[in-house]
Amino acid sequence: AAFRTGSVAWDPSRRRVILQRERETFAWDGTDWAQLQPTAQPFEAPEALVFDSARNRLVAITSGGEWTLLP
After folding, report:
1. Of 2, 20, 22, which is closest to residue 11 (Cα–Cα)?
2. What whole-number distance in Å separates Cα of residue 17 and Cα of residue 19?
3. Which residues of the chain have pLDDT under 70?
4. What is the DSSP letter of 55?
5. Beta pairing partners, 50
6. How many CB atoms lie within 10 A of CB 53?
């Protein structure tokens, strides 16, 4: 199935690409996609997905606030 919306970020600490869309999060390790179960999920599609190197975490930014996806 094709993704309509979503955000992508590189996670350098885990060496993988993270795709977050609506209430689903996936990781690409260069070979396979795996669905993840983050500790928190935003209720809407993220406007941005960024890696916070100071805290070593992946953060989703939505109109409703900031969500730590992968601590």
Report:
1. 20
2. 7
3. 1-4, 40-44, 70-71
4. T
5. 59
6. 9
Per-residue pLDDT reduced to its tens digit, 10-21: 999 999 999 887
Strand arrangement, sheet containing 48-52: 48-52, 57-62, 65-70
Q: How many CB atoms lie within 10 A of CB 25?
A: 23
pTM of the model: 0.78
Question: Is residue 48 within 8 Å of 60, Cβ to Cβ?
Answer: yes
